[in-house]
Design goal:
It is a single chain. 6% of the residues lie in helices and 27% in strands. With 124 residues, it is mainly β. It has one domain (2-122). The protein has a 5-stranded antiparallel β-sheet, covered by helices on one side.
Amino acid sequence: MHRLPDAEAVDGSTVYVAPSYNNVVGLMVFATGDGAAFERGADDPPVPGRCCAICNDEHYDFNDTRLYADLFRQTALACVSFALVFLTDTALNGWYCVFHATNQTTSFVDAGYGTRASHVYYVA
């Protein structure tokens, strides 16, 4: 994995993760094991080992998280990039991995989830 220059978000393609941070199908997973790593703060991102493993379709700490192109998990998806994102919201606090099917960056539009920081990585 190679880190891109800091960016606030990457492409808008939808990549589903199963299991996600809430143990069902979703759009992101905790960046560090089963915890959101909120105590680290926006200026102290964790090592993205879990994000990299998921993006490379590898197991991480006995976790079998996979990426899909559809909500019903019928079509597996190859990861091209991911963002390590720090969220500050009442329900989503801490660092999360958000996966993408391209390595295109776009400007971030605040959707009300309190995104405070992000770092983008892509598969070499």
